[in-house]
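Entry 14. Structure prediction run on the chain below.
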Amino acid sequence: MPGGAAAGGAAARRDHLHSSRGGCPMTPELHRPILLDRIGPNGLDFMVEATPAECAALTARMQLPAVHAVSCSFHLVREDRDTILARGHLKGRVTQTCVVSLEDFEAPVEEVFQVCFVPLGTETDDVDPESDDEIPYEGNVIDLGEATAEQLALALDPYPRKPGATLEEAEPKQPEHPFAGLSRLRPLN
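Output returned:
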């Protein structure tokens, strides 16, 4: 599966992203509902591009200094009546904070991925990191905007490092001789 390296904990992180805030259902920052009826026998191609207001909302959600741009092209195909396979190509530009220098820097984000939309309650308990992530949906609508936001979150480097940032190495401390403390106790004659 493309993006398999990040897939291991993807379901757990996705569950966190779907959580409620204050007991109210979460309103997606990037909302692009698609009726399943639009997906024909040859599939459906769809592009999601975040507006500046949506980028600002994603900035707050992702707790980043800035999300400058996010777009994702999708190709949707039906695996069966209710299961939709989505292949996507995410591109974005974000500002992250370097874990070494604590300076903000702009970084590109790009990820090719594949997910399955499945009816709510039919998700598998498969923990195989190579299997496709499943995104539950209700009714006859899937949200490609929320899928884009989730993939952005999964594609971000958890330990961003500004190009050229280095840790200064401390000078190695000379180990003290094990009996050095005893020499201070000895009278000087």
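The radius of gyration is 24 Å.
Filed with the rest of this week's runs.
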